[in-house]
Design goal:
The complex is a heterodimer of chains A (248) and B (351). With 248 residues, chain A is an alpha/beta fold. Helix content of chain A is 36%, strand content 16%. Chain A has a seven-stranded mixed β-sheet, sandwiched between helices. In chain A, α1 packs across α7 and α3 crosses α4. The longest helix of chain A is centred in the C-terminal third of the chain and has 19 residues. Chain B is globular. The N and C termini of chain B lie far apart (49 Å). The chains are: A alpha/beta (248), B alpha/beta (351). Chains A and B meet through β1, β2, α2 and α4 of A and α3, α4 and β9 of B. β2 of chain A pairs parallel with β9 of chain B.
Chain lengths: 248, 351
């Protein structure tokens, strides 16, 4: 007896839409993992989220759940407001590295420290994508960006910020893990991590944070294959994958 | 509950709770700290939630999130804190969400001082944040009026799905007066049609709450709809008080504590035979321009009295179509004009 596998889109993916993301961008993979989990956990009607500022600002065009738009960096504060009123609903935020680790640093640290019972998905591609490739707080030493054209100089801009390690120094968070979407084996682990974040929220365990190492072929000036290689060769040594904090 | 003697800030907080407010997000700043303090103690007893944000920026965004769920949410701050909240206020207005914001004004600009002031008239009524948006702005002049306006603020916030600001000067926050606070109910029956969290109730239609629109024609259309709402406020919901206008030769325009001081001055001046009247806007946006149309032909001069450098004077000139000379008298920086000073200014004008 033969088995035929047919490609299907998640039910929570908007009908008949294609994303605006560039070829080789990690956002599409991360979005799909979220949708698959929303379907598997059957939480589409009970999940509330915020659109961030950045390339994912229009993610509400792709994921069919309730959305509100958050100002740049403020998604964890907006999520706090939502979850405190509706603790019966699933709430997740989705922010890039400029949004979360630069302009929104205060909001993410304090949401983590209050132990807000929602799930944060943090997309780290070491650059500002939407605005056209400026230096991010996560841009690596020597990495070129439009506002550090000769490469990031730590004497001028300091060293890249490792968010998982920073947040893991807090007592309150329930779960902190860094994953990647560079290869199928990493993608499977990334999905498991996001699932754990959602499940911890369902169990009222508090704040969970999943950092996803992503790619930006356009602003890195690479083709998609090279971009994923660069992520594994250059980003992973500085941003090691793994669990930094776990409730259990 | 009969009348009880309460401090302004605490009366604001209790009035809000009695009107159904169950969620409060704020950050400490003088002179309004008794509001979050009161909320932190009393909201949990009513099944509500008080969270101290890490900043005014975070607090107003917590308000944004809570407002998106259709609940009765409130924050309070004072002038520099409201400046920090302006980004979030613009988003809340652009996203058409209801909330109540209390500004217990202190002197500015910048860090300014901590004493009472009316220095945020322009910020509250003409903008503060970016874009074509308006807040409804209420300026109480007694504590009972403060209580009544705080309670009705949610009626307007939900009627228009728009933020409402209680613009109280520091005197309103810090003085004590007898007030009666009754339970008040706001009609929120339509929240399921627009708020987050009712996917199933809407027949599996999600809700999307946002202010961004990258298509210029659609963004313009959104702005035109917002403007219609502001025009409707102007038509239906201005509030003002007039006093001794019938034969007035001099009309004082003042709101909040300034109006209260002016009333005493007018009573004294009337005893001396001076024909002085008052127009007191209660809504600063929508501004009650029509109140100034009631000014009698006997009027020779308008005196704008405020605790700032004359921020309302342009609206007074619009309201009177520049038919009368308008001058300003007031103090700022934490000082208030005295009854005697206002009397003296009026005598000088009337000759």
């Amino acid at each position: 007896m033969s088995e035929t596998k047919i490609y299907s889109k998640p039910r929570s993916w908007m009908k008949d839409v294609h994303t605006h993301y560039c070829p080789g961008c990690g956002h599409g993979i991360a979005h799909r993992l979220i949708c698959e989990l929303i379907d598997e956990l059957d939480i589409q009607k009970d999940t509330l989220s915020m659109a961030p500022v950045g390339c994912a600002a229009m993610m509400y065009d792709y994921i069919d759940i309730d959305y509100v738009e958050a100002p740049h960096g403020r998604a964890p504060a907006v999520a706090t407001g939502i979850k405190r009123v509706r603790p019966d609903k699933m709430v997740f935020t989705y922010q890039g590295d400029g949004d979360l680790a630069s302009i929104g640093m205060a909001e993410i640290i304090h949401a983590a420290n209050r132990g807000e019972n929602f799930t944060v998905i943090f997309i780290n591609n070491a650059i500002y994508g939407m605005t056209g490739g400026q230096m991010a707080p996560t841009t690596l030493i020597g990495q070129k960006a439009t506002t550090c054209p000769l490469g990031r100089d730590p004497r001028l801009a300091g060293y890249p910020i490792r968010m998982c390690e920073l947040l893991a120094s807090l007592e309150t968070p329930a779960y902190i893990e860094r994953v990647s979407v560079a290869k199928p084996k990493y993608i499977i682990k990334a999905k498991a991590a996001i699932k754990k974040g959602f499940e911890y929220q369902m169990q009222n365990r508090g704040f969970s944070f999943i950092e996803v190492l992503s790619t930006c072929p356009t602003n890195w000036g690479m083709n998609p294959v090279k971009a994923f290689e660069w992520q594994m060769e250059t980003m992973m040594p500085y941003y090691p994958l793994g669990v930094f904090k776990d409730y259990e | 509950m009969g009348k009880v003697l309460m401090k302004g800030t605490e009366a604001i907080a209790e009035a809000a709770i009695q009107a159904g407010c169950r969620h409060f997000f704020g950050y400490p700043i003088t002179p309004q700290n008794e509001i979050p303090e009161y909320m932190s103690l009393h909201l949990p007893k009513h099944g509500g939630v008080y969270i101290q944000g890490e900043s005014e920026v975070a607090s107003i965004n917590m308000v944004l999130g809570a407002a998106a769920t259709g609940c009765q949410v409130m924050t309070s701050s004072s002038s520099p804190g409201i400046s920090l909240m302006s980004e979030g206020i613009s988003y809340i207005a652009g996203s058409e969400l209801p909330c109540v914001i209390v500004n217990v004004m202190r002197g500015g600009p910048g860090l300014g001082g901590i004493l009472p002031s009316q220095a945020d008239y322009l910020q509250a009524t003409k903008g503060g944040g970016n874009g074509d948006y308006r807040l409804m702005v209420f300026a109480p002049s007694t504590l009972q009026e403060t209580v009544d306006l705080v309670q009705s603020a949610w009626d307007y916030a939900f009627k228009y799905r728009n933020p409402v600001m209680i613009l109280a000067d520091g005197f309103m926050g810090q003085m004590m007066e007898p007030v009666e606070i009754k339970p008040h109910e706001t009609d929120r029956r339509d929240v399921k049609s627009w708020a987050m969290g009712y996917y199933s109730d809407r027949g599996n239609e999600r809700t999307l709450i946002k202010s961004m629109n990258l298509t210029p024609e659609l963004l313009e259309a959104h702005n035109i709809e917002l403007q219609k709402k502001y025009d409707r406020m102007q038509k239906e919901d201005t509030m003002f008080e007039t006093m001794d206008l019938d034969d007035a030769e001099l009309v004082i325009a003042a709101y909040g504590t300034s109006a209260r001081i002016a009333k005493t001055a007018i009573a004294h001046l009337r005893e001396e035979g001076y024909k002085v009247g008052l127009v007191r806007p209660i809504t600063l946006f929508p501004f009650p321009y029509e109140a100034f149309e009631k000014i009698p032909p006997s009027t020779r001069h308008i005196l704008d009295v405020e605790m700032n450098m004359g921020q309302m004077i342009d609206d007074v000139k619009i309201g009177t179509s520049c038919k009368y000379p308008v001058s300003f008298f007031g103090h700022c920086g934490g000082l208030a004009p005295s009854v005697e000073e206002i009397e003296q200014e009026c005598r000088k004008i009337l000759g």
